[in-house]
Every structure is written in structure tokens, then in C-alpha cells.
Specification:
The structure is a homotetramer.
Chain A lengths: L3 E9 H14 L4 H19 L4 E11 L5 H11 L4 E8 L4 E11 H12 L4 E9 L7
């Protein structure tokens, strides 16, 4: 292990108090340790975005299908990226709310771009994109 | 085995020729045998429609999502029958064409009614509904 | 409209009685009419099996996942036909029973062969395969 | 806005260099700003884990189905949590590798517990769990 460095971080006390209470419940022994884990998670995500080779990805969106045209626009965009999208699984949560999981396979950069386009459609209540490996490069 | 009865069937020669060539390729030894199998299949389907207890069902529809409002109307109808529908899996076949499989769970009569409503939406190119068992009553 | 021909069909009276009661409830005016419809359905199915070009297909299976190895064997067979299979949607009906819908895309003959192999695995309680169009050749 | 506090964080220089290069490419103007965002993301995730009311969740796992019994064990565990799981969508990546997305609906605490059990099965190459809202409490 190389040289250890130290730097200062500033934030609102309210945010720090929330952070402290969470890391304490998670069993972290120091703020540094928790922040290092957050940074490592960020690095993994970031590496995947620029990764070569084939990747899988899952986009989760929650929306109100009665919103004018949202369902049609999502479907249109999904078909437009049809070469990257394996399928979309639609759950009918209640009369209005839907959750869709759309599964991607292809180059990381293209998947991310398509997922960003889909999740930026106006009217979507919640969206989250997750990369996953194809497993081919893992033992 | 009970009494065997015989009755006459009339049809267009062209239809009969097609039937004959299919049943010959399938290895049936007589038209009667093939027709009995078709009738048995019909009876099984019919029994499921009036069956008590919980059933599964799958509706397959193929449609052009660029058709005005079809995607939105399907989604609206599916949400309306949300208590019977587990989820809908959407495949983006090409820029225009979609295939959806919608999975139902519930009373046979209600499932069939909901599936009929969905598949009768104008603009659907192809639809097929299939009952399936929950497996609970089968050894 | 060509020449109309007439031929005789023989069956067990019990089977004929069931058939009569179903076609009466369906509103058919004659046995010939109902049998013609059954034959037309059979012709459509048969044509799909030998059809050129790309097809979609859906295999529904119901099985008891606690049956020794059935889940693993199904998964192994599905991966073996990975170039034809888009995905498999698995429903957990109860502690033991599952329903899976597996969606195929490819040449009719190859799809049918793969679906037949999957559905013939010992221990499956129910299986049904359905062809569907990609919609490309339909107005 | 309340009082701003400042505290020190220590880490390996290599980790800090990676962090700096990522936040620079993302356009952050300071480490503090990037760390605050990471902490806010952590808080949102944490809040969902302890949230009252109905939640949705998606578990993504990648595994080698030829690994002894892994497929059967996953299926068994999924059926065991059948009241929380809507369905599992299985993709056949290649002869060996699979990706599954399992969709949960229920109380956050129970969903998280079930997802943790599933993702801790030995032999899984990658797993990621994501909470999602039902959309009911969002405008």
C-alpha cells in the first residue's frame, strides 16, 4: 500500500449528522473508512461506463402511464434503441403507476447513452440505471 | 368404450385437400382420427374456460406501436385489470413491431374476459390467448 | 368457392355429445362449420411450422422445481439454444410450482425443434408452444 | 442552510488520484462537493431500507448456471420468498453465464432481507439490489 494522504471536507452539519448516524449503524469505525467505500463504489461504476467489450445493463423507471403520451414515447425510444435492448418488463402497480425494467446488452457507452435518453423523458417519477457484467470475464 | 357413431361433414374440396396433406404428414391413418384429436383439444380448452379455482394464462399480442394510441390503450386496459395481471414482457422486434406477453393469474372466467378485451383492441396484428394450470392440482 | 365435398366421420358417442354441447354454446349452426374452423386453425399452425423467414414463438411450461434437477436441466437446455431464445420469465406460483414463458426468435423449424426438446423434459406438468409472427409481413 | 463544518479524511494516494480524475471529468469543482453527493446518495438508499409502506425492488444477479446446484438453489430461495417476488426474468448470456432480474414488491425491510439472502448464495459472480418506489407517494 502506498502513501496515505489527508485532506479536508466541508459540509452542512445536518448532512454530516445524518452521515454519522448511518455509518455508525453500519458499523464503520471512521468517516474516512465510509468515504473510501463510497469512492470505491463510484470508481467501479465509472470504470464500467468506459469499459471495452460487451456489457449488460438494467434501467428501472417508475411512471404514471396516464401522463399524456409517456407510454408511447418510452416505447418509441425503446424501439429506436432496439439493437441494444433485449426486452422491457412492465409491472402494473396500480391504476396509474407502472414500473418498467428494460434490459440492455451491448457496448457500455452506447447502453449508457440510450438509458440516459430514456430516463430523461419528462414525466418519469423515478429512474435508476445499473450496469452489470456478462460474466464472461469473471472467474 | 361406448357406442361409436358416424356423421357426415361437408367442406370445400380445397380445404379438405389441405387437411388431407397435413394429417398425412403427421402420420394420421384416417380423417376421423385427426378430427377426434382436434375435438379433444377443443374440449380441453373449453373446460379450462369454465374451470373453478385459480388459473394462469398468457396473452400474446403483436402490434405496431406507431399506430395511434395503441400502446397507451393497451397499457390502460392492462392497468384496469391489474388484479389479474402479473406483468407484461415487451419485445421490440423492429422500429415498428412489438410482441407482448401478458401473464394472468386468477379465476378462469375473469382472465378470459380481460384477455378478450385486450386482444380485441383495434390495430393488433395478431393475438393468441393460452390458459395454463397453476400445477397445484396436478401430480 | 370450389366444389363442396362430403365425407363421414366416426367417433365415440360420448366425445360427440361433448362436442355438440360446446359448439352449441359457441353458437355454431352445424358440426361441419365447427370442424371447418378447427381444420383452418390446424392449417394456420402447420403453415407456421414450415414458414420461411423470421418467427417469434412462446413456450409455456409448468413444473415442480423441487423435482430433482428439472430446473437445472431446463436452464442448461435453454442456454444450449441461446441463439434462439430471447429470455425466460419465471413465476413462482407457490413453494413448489413454477410457470415459465420462454420467448424464441428465429427460423420456425429451429424454434419448434428447440421448444420440443425443452417441453419433452421429464417432470414437466404442462407445456404449450405457440408461434407468433414478427408482424413484418402483416399490414 | 445551517452551520458548515469541516473534517479531515485520509486515504491512499492512489485512491485519491482516481477519485480526483473522475470528479474532474464529471465537472465537480471540489472534492467536498463530490463527497456530499455521494453521502446524499447513501442517505437516500438508507432511508428506503427503513421506509414504511410498500416498495418495489429489483435484484440483478449474474452467475454460471453450470455451477453445481446454483440454479436450483436460487429457484428454491425465490419460491421461499414467493409472497415478495413478482417474477424473475432470466437471460441466457452464453452457454454458461446467466443474468437474472428478480422483481420484489412489499415492505422494504422484508424485501431487503430476501434480496440479501439470494445474493449471498455462493457462486454468484455479481449482484446488485436496487429499491424503487411504487410511485404512489410521488406527485
Amino acid at each position: 500500500m502506498g502513501e496515505t494522504v489527508r485532506f479536508g471536507v466541508s459540509m452542512d452539519r445536518e448532512l454530516l449528522d445524518l452521515f454519522d448516524s448511518i455509518i455508525s449503524s453500519k458499523g464503520y469505525s471512521s468517516r474516512s473508512e465510509a468515504i473510501r467505500d463510497l469512492i470505491r463504489g463510484m470508481i467501479v461504476e465509472e470504470r464500467w461506463k468506459t469499459r471495452e467489450g460487451e456489457m449488460m445493463g438494467v434501467l428501472i423507471v417508475v411512471y404514471d402511464h396516464t401522463q399524456r403520451e409517456l407510454c408511447s414515447r418510452l416505447t418509441r425510444e425503446q424501439h429506436h434503441h432496439g439493437d441494444l435492448i433485449l426486452c422491457t418488463l412492465h409491472f402494473h402497480i396500480d391504476e396509474m403507476n407502472c414500473m418498467e425494467t428494460t434490459v440492455f446488452r451491448g457496448r457500455a457507452e452506447e447502453i449508457k447513452k440510450a438509458a440516459d435518453e430514456l430516463s430523461s423523458l419528462r414525466g418519469i417519477k423515478y429512474s435508476k440505471f445499473i450496469f452489470a457484467t456478462t460474466g464472461k470475464d469473471l472467474p
